């Protein structure tokens, strides 16, 4: 095994990936499984999760993560079904409103924070005792460039707040849990094509907006973001904790 292979080898490790029924989460689950991990995949769409498990093995754990009362069932299901999780990738996320900030309904703000910020926190609390007893762990949250900069023309105030909150949570958990060798990081992607962003890419106006604002002359893909997730989950990232790593084709560098 080369040094590079060893650094990204997940043999024998148990991972939880949320948002694995599509997009980035599905890509991360596939790559972790392809590098040896046994992966518990989480999302609402059970058939999608079952199909993925048929392809990569592991365990399907259907759950609506926007309901804080249900999130606590995820980690026990994984530890019973696969064993103690050493890796948690919080990729599930979404928006509940497209309204401008002044008009965002309270329920949408609350649902956004529940799914994008509270669920990753609750899942981190859930995996903590397992990671502490194993003596190591890696948690990777998925935020967004909108947690760092405003995105003109696409109103997303509660989404931006939830994603920025992940960076604060990340730094705090990293400092509290470092003594247990549990690393906590966040990946902040720029735009890539997925179910969430599909409509933006379809229209001429949306795709030229994205091209104009992305210095690299390529379109981002889930796989471009998975590289950073794998690095942070694996031994390649063993000295990295508390960070928010931006993967955005240069959007925020301008
Ligand atoms: N695409 C982009 O340009 C972009 C940019 C920056 C950040 N991100 C972030 O990247 C992450 C992945 O998004 P994506 O672009 O890959 O979009 P996607 O394909 O729509 O994936 C979103 C995932 O989240 C899951 N999810 C949504 N609501 C959920 C709920 N209530 N409970 C459980 N799971 C739920 C969905 O599964 P179910 O529908 O089966 O529940 C799906 O698997 C998100 O956190 C997103 O905010 C995306």
TrEMBL record:
Keyword terms: Oxidoreductase
InterPro entries assigned to the protein according to its UniProt record, in alphabetical order: NAD(P)-bd_dom_sf, Sc_DH/Rdtase_CS, SDR_fam
Single GO molecular function: oxidoreductase activity, acting on the CH-OH group of donors, NAD or NADP as acceptor
Keyword Oxidoreductase: yes
A single BP term in Gene Ontology: fatty acid elongation
TM segment ranges: none
Family: Belongs to the short-chain dehydrogenases/reductases (SDR) family.
Protein name, UniProt field: SDR family oxidoreductase
Lineage of the species this protein comes from: Bacteria, Bacillati, Actinomycetota, Actinomycetes, Cryptosporangiales
